[in-house]
Amino acid sequence: MADTLDPLSPSTNDSSPGLMNILRQRLGRTPTGANGDGYVEFGEFRSEQSGVKKVGTFAGVFCPVVLSMFSALVFIRMGYLIGNAGLLVTLAQFGMAYLIVGFTVTSICAISTNGAVEGGGVYFMISRTLGPEFGGAIGTLFFFANVVSSALCISACAEAMVENFGDDGGYLIGSSPGLPSGYWYNFLYRSALNAVGLGVSLAGASLFASTSLAIWLTTIVCLFSAFLSFFITAPGQIEKPASNTIVNATNFTYTGLSSVTLRENLYPNYSRDYTADGEFVDFASVFGVLFTGVTGVMAGANMSGELKNPSLNIPRGTLGALLLTALTYLSLSLLTAATCSRELLQNNYVYLLPINIWPPFIAVGMLTATFSAGLSNLIGASRVLEALAKDDIFGFLLRPMVSRSGNPVLAVIASWLLVQFAIMADSLNAIAQVNSVLFMTSYFAINLACLGLDLASAPNFRPTFKQFSWASSLAGLVGCAGVMFFTRAGYAAGAALACCGLVLALHFLSPAAADPGWGSLSQALIFHQVRKYLLLLDPRRQHVKFWRPQMLLLVASPRHCAPLIDFVNDQKKGGLFVLGHVRVGELDGSGDPLSDEHKYWLQLIDHLKVKAFVELCLCESVRGGAAQLSRLSGLGAMKPDTVLLGFRDQAPHRDFFRDPSSPYKTSMFDLEGGEVVFPARASKISVTEYVRIVSDVLCVGKNVCLCRHFHKLDMEAIAKRSSSSRSIDVWLVEPLRPSREEPFSVRALFALQLAAVVRSARGWTRLGLRVHIITGVSTTGPLSSSPDQLSPGRPVTERLEQLLKMLRINATIHPVPEWPSLEGSHRWADLDDDQVYQRVPMNYLQKVNSIIKARSSEAVVTFIQLPPPPPSVNRDDDICNDYLKTLDELTKDLSPTILVRGLKSVTSTSL
């Protein structure tokens, strides 16, 4: 069995329409015309599902955002904020929260106006920007953020029910028996509210959107009554709620508008939270509750799948809602601080109820604001979950969540179950802390996505929302991270670890990570940075101390040389590795014949697990294509300096992709209809063309390596301990002009360096490195090393040993005392290179071959000096035949062998 023969020869199916059609079917697309008359499918023109109603800016974005932001804060927790943090700190916290949210909203608007936004809202935006791994991780956290937010609002709604309709509520039911309270009763009320939310969600988001206007109007009327009451209600005493059991006092003062009360409420005075078993309140806990009042800003973006024009609806509705809620919180904070005593605010969080001109207004506002916000978050969570399922982020685990009717029933049920689990927490304020951190993590990701897009200078990032800039995204990003870790470092660290864990898990396990077809910001950033550093990588400043192999392996059919590709991957030592392929043909105006095949070369790299680039060339001849690849492969200073070719001989092929005993066996390159990718060749290129390719590579100043017998190489056995007795052999001998000074030449040291690099690769370190030199011929070559370092008068073995130490190469020296002589050729040194290949005796080559075979019988790979091609290679075909016969006889029946011809110095003895 022979190795890869003549790996440059063209494929047999160059003009086969059958394989091209199969390739196109596999790629799942129809090629566009040569004149650009193909069609591109744009997301903006996607067809809408029949029967799914779309909503506009006001009902679809503005109302849900306002209701979600008001949620539990505006009617139930304003007293908690002012009573503990004071007016100044509360306003500062609102300012900080709105700055973060404002910067994030500019990022949301930028992304939503930069292309078609589909279902999934913020998750869709992040995933299409940052890619499936990071987008899927943030989308998962955002899903849980909506779940926790829904639980928060439902818990607040249940708390409002108990405060108003409980045994001691008193404001609405008087002396009638009310709702019993306690943990399990409260859990029952939350579960009932959650069940109602489930029913509405199953009916469809359009039902909620159509009723959101009525809910919004009701909430606004109730809120207006609260503002009006501050100016109408007379001062008096307010009773504490029944849920407050940590103080003995029963009445607290409502003063009406008073400058004295305002001054008393200016500064912080943290106390105990009567809804959380008397736990002490601090700055972080207050901010965690306050931030829930701004987390609803993405409620409109979550409804993107139900919006008529998301790119227009989301910015307008979100910015309008942000302005209204900011004015509301500011006004409510000022009026509260100017009318309510500190004791009232700290011990009665629902103070708006007893001071209202008609308390039922506040009761209705509490229930509608909290329930609608909880419902909005439940619907939003289900849409994010469905989007994750559609994108195949978690594979089969979420596939049942995809809906065919437009309403994701299973996703709604799954979200409802998680909300049901979350409402088991009895403390509204405890839920608020987790909710705030999860939303800030999502805000962080949105700002990161926009910042990356702007810094990457992506030409297609052209948002129509002009108020966005990289500075706003950076401010939002830094603000989110700083506030998270300042207020709740433990929760923030947990969210960060969860996000990192999900990113890694999705990278290795998610089906979508392989080829989502979305584009990834990381690729844009990598391109930006690689281009930057390639320009800085000046080839004029390269030094031999930092040389590393940069390989171009010319391959005709990878299925016959898989071990060689694997070997060169180890040989590159962190350098450049390019797989080059030449197809004989020319452009005929019908498209690029190599475009479809390129995908399979990339799959080949994945299958062989090599770190390589692919360069495909279309040329009228193999020789011309090889010359093009040799000269043009790579970019800037990262260009191959060594070209490797398979050897041209008569050995039969071995198909490593179909051989049952091959470690490279795979069926991924077998197509329907009996055709295969990377087929075997019908004929080899001629001897003349092959030898001229070798000559061309040397002519353009590239090192050349001819690789033979690599079908024998077992890469799996090399890694085993049983191979530790074997070696890598280097023959520092010029076979046709032998000299004791050859080990000190540039070309010999290049071969030695390649062998040392291979030995340093993983799996090869157990092998010994053996250097073979001759001592039985006269000295004819010049001494390449300086005399002060290596004295020419000393034995060659001693001098070589000293050189190896200076080069830090751990190798054993094996002298060859008797080298065959060239009988009848006493004037051999006077022959030119053409005459050498014409007159070299066959028995001499056979003796050299037998010496190498005997001494390197245990070698895994053998490096031998490649004699130079004859000068008249381009004029005389017979000379080419003589040259290739010489190489064939020299390497016959050896272990995997590399014939090396180095042109440049690649070793250094200096620091």
Automatic annotation (TrEMBL):
<keyword id="KW-0812">Transmembrane</keyword>
<feature type="domain" description="Amino acid permease/ SLC12A">
    <location>
        <begin position="62"/>
        <end position="552"/>
    </location>
</feature>
<feature type="transmembrane region" description="Helical">
    <location>
        <begin position="406"/>
        <end position="425"/>
    </location>
</feature>
<keyword id="KW-0472">Membrane</keyword>
<feature type="transmembrane region" description="Helical">
    <location>
        <begin position="138"/>
        <end position="162"/>
    </location>
</feature>
<keyword id="KW-1133">Transmembrane helix</keyword>
<feature type="transmembrane region" description="Helical">
    <location>
        <begin position="215"/>
        <end position="234"/>
    </location>
</feature>
<dbReference type="InterPro" id="IPR004841">
    <property type="entry name" value="AA-permease/SLC12A_dom"/>
</dbReference>
<feature type="transmembrane region" description="Helical">
    <location>
        <begin position="492"/>
        <end position="509"/>
    </location>
</feature>
<feature type="transmembrane region" description="Helical">
    <location>
        <begin position="317"/>
        <end position="337"/>
    </location>
</feature>
<dbReference type="Pfam" id="PF03522">
    <property type="entry name" value="SLC12"/>
</dbReference>
<comment type="similarity">
    <text>Belongs to the SLC12A transporter family.</text>
</comment>
<feature type="transmembrane region" description="Helical">
    <location>
        <begin position="283"/>
        <end position="305"/>
    </location>
</feature>
<dbReference type="GO" id="GO:0055064">
    <property type="term" value="P:chloride ion homeostasis"/>
</dbReference>
<protein>
    <recommendedName>
        <fullName>Solute carrier family 12 member 9</fullName>
    </recommendedName>
</protein>
<feature type="domain" description="SLC12A transporter C-terminal">
    <location>
        <begin position="563"/>
        <end position="649"/>
    </location>
</feature>
<dbReference type="InterPro" id="IPR004842">
    <property type="entry name" value="SLC12A_fam"/>
</dbReference>
<keyword id="KW-0813">Transport</keyword>
<dbReference type="GO" id="GO:0055075">
    <property type="term" value="P:potassium ion homeostasis"/>
</dbReference>
<feature type="transmembrane region" description="Helical">
    <location>
        <begin position="437"/>
        <end position="456"/>
    </location>
</feature>
<feature type="transmembrane region" description="Helical">
    <location>
        <begin position="468"/>
        <end position="486"/>
    </location>
</feature>
<dbReference type="Pfam" id="PF00324">
    <property type="entry name" value="AA_permease"/>
</dbReference>
<dbReference type="GO" id="GO:0006884">
    <property type="term" value="P:cell volume homeostasis"/>
</dbReference>
<dbReference type="GO" id="GO:0015379">
    <property type="term" value="F:potassium:chloride symporter activity"/>
</dbReference>
<feature type="transmembrane region" description="Helical">
    <location>
        <begin position="357"/>
        <end position="385"/>
    </location>
</feature>
<dbReference type="InterPro" id="IPR018491">
    <property type="entry name" value="SLC12_C"/>
</dbReference>
<feature type="transmembrane region" description="Helical">
    <location>
        <begin position="55"/>
        <end position="76"/>
    </location>
</feature>
<feature type="transmembrane region" description="Helical">
    <location>
        <begin position="187"/>
        <end position="208"/>
    </location>
</feature>
<dbReference type="GO" id="GO:0016020">
    <property type="term" value="C:membrane"/>
</dbReference>
